[in-house]
Amino acid sequence: MKFKRxxxxxxxxxxxxxxxxxxxxxxxxxxxxxxxxxxxxxxxxAKYWKAKTGDTVSIKQSHGGSGKQARSVIDGLRADVVTLAxxxxxxxxxxxxxxxxADWQKRLPHNxxxxxxxxxxxxxxxxxxxxxxxxxxxxxxxxxxxxNPKTSGGARWNYLAAWEFAKRKLGGDEQAKGFVAxxxxxxxxxxxxARGATTTFVQRGIGDVLISWENEAYLALKEFGxxxxxxxxPSLSILAEPPVAVVEKVAKKKGTLxxxxxxxxxLYSAEGQDIAGKHFYRPIDPKAAAKYAGQFAxxxxxxxxxxxxxxxxxxxxxxxxxxxxxxxxxxx
Amino acid sequence: MSTRSARSxxxxxxxxxxxTIAYLSLIVLLPLSAVFLKTSGMTxxxxxxxxxxxxxxxxxxxxxxxxLAAASVNAVFGLIVAWVLVxxxxxxxxxxxxxxxxxxxxxxxxxxxxxxxxxxxxxxIGRWLxxxxxxxxxxxxxxxxxxxxxxxxxxxxxxxxVIEELEPELEEASATLxxxxxQTVFRVILPxxxxxxxxGTAMAFARSLGEYGSVVFIGANLPMKTQIVPHVIxxxxxxxxxxxxxxxxxxxxxxxFVLLLLINLLQKWSRRYNKI
Lengths: 332, 276
Fold this sequence. Notes:
The structure holds 2 protein chains of 2 kinds. By secondary structure, chain A is an alpha/beta fold. Chain A has helices at about 1-20, 35-55, 65-75, 85-95, 105, 110, 135, 155-170, 175-185, 195-200, 215-225, 250-255, 255-265, 270-280, 285-290, 305-310, 310-320, 325-330; strands spanning about 25-30, 55-60, 80-85, 115-125, 145, 210-215, 230, 235-240, 245, 280-285, 300. In chain A, helix 9 (about 175-185) packs across helix 18 and helix 10 packs parallel to helix 11. The termini of chain A are far apart. Chain B has 14 helices and no strands. In chain B, helix 4 packs parallel to helix 9 (about 140-165), helix 9 (about 140-165) crosses helix 11 and helix 10 (about 170-175) packs antiparallel against helix 11. The radius of gyration of chain B is 23 Å and the shape is globular.
């Protein structure tokens, strides 16, 4: 009896609380190079949400290799939203842990990718090894820095971009494998994430060229000075679509579903798109895209669906145990 | 008489043994049995395939040999450090003594980053080696250096109390009886230190086998070259291959346990052998 009354009292207090302005906390679990983007975006969203609802929302960020981040969420990290490097890392959260509905990529526009990016090269000032395109990376005497594709989402985009380039130029998958093998022979360090690879290249002075996210390359240029590095845009590269999703099961439990959904939707707004462009992501909104078009070099892009038949297929053929990546290292 | 000698002055054997078993079960046995449980879901063929792929075999070798080399170096230099710290007095001895514990206290990732910063070709030491084409960071030598750093305190801290117990009179007796300095060191001092030296080296070795944090920074993590076993386990987890990861962990666990058991036996034997 006493317990019941206490319970009623508590729920009354809780209900009263919802009527007033709330303090909400969201956790955004993201991948390596988005730190700076989301610091800016979180501030903008908090302001927008305060103006709209009066609630104060504070967003915590967690960053790391995309695969590792996905695994933390599967293992119980209570993320409200995930903003990862590739759909292949959000799929397991949906398939293995069932925290996200299976049709998550249809719930937000543009395959749930509010911004896109691609893969470019960062070289040392003056480009001493005269690196112009993918074939220069497989030449003997060039040290290439790229992370481990088994642990890094970015590295998987790098690997597939190199593969497709060679396939188109040399004629087939067998030739492409030989080309990627030669390229990997030039890799002295396999970091586990994109940010680690950038550190190895920029701060440790290892390597002649860093295969990198476009936004990460521009960020390195901005942070460490254009007098030390240059960006080289290859003739062909992959269209990287880093997707976002609400971790519905967790958000529902925490009661943050509405704000978490709004958080991701606002990425598609004029302001969200502008922030993405400012951080060297390619906005999908035509207006923002036009505004920032000048900062990116022209490049021919292909999608993973047209070249590799989607993530799950590419994952199985190239990066799973016994895939082409393992085969290449076995032969060395 | 016989019952009296078996009785301890302090009561409470039953209680403290019960507590010991419960505590060890909770802290050590429970998580370890989870590893075995997860692995037991695999068929034998799956298990063998997971733990004997060429990548894993190569990683066993890297882990084993780098740890062995690091432990051996620590056995020699740790012995010297321990000897100096016990037998001599010099200024700032307390500080030097505290320095030995630093690898214990420092987060291993910090150690790894610090070592990489020093030994990379832009670092303080790496810079001077680069012109001669000597590379340390991102090679097996880097892995070895990180493991040496991690293992040092185990050897020193195990030896120190034993050296403190040594009686200098024995050395004096040996000298007055006409033994050379060489004979005094190798026939009088070292035999007494052997059990502790083996124990310390073994602990350093076992610790190195499991080391992850520092090696991932200074080693290049290249499959078939510098990848260590803990990194293979991490890589498997990243691929959502939980069973494969625990299978390799099981092999590591059993190996380490057998090794430690062997070393305990060896220690016992050497203690008996040297007791004359």
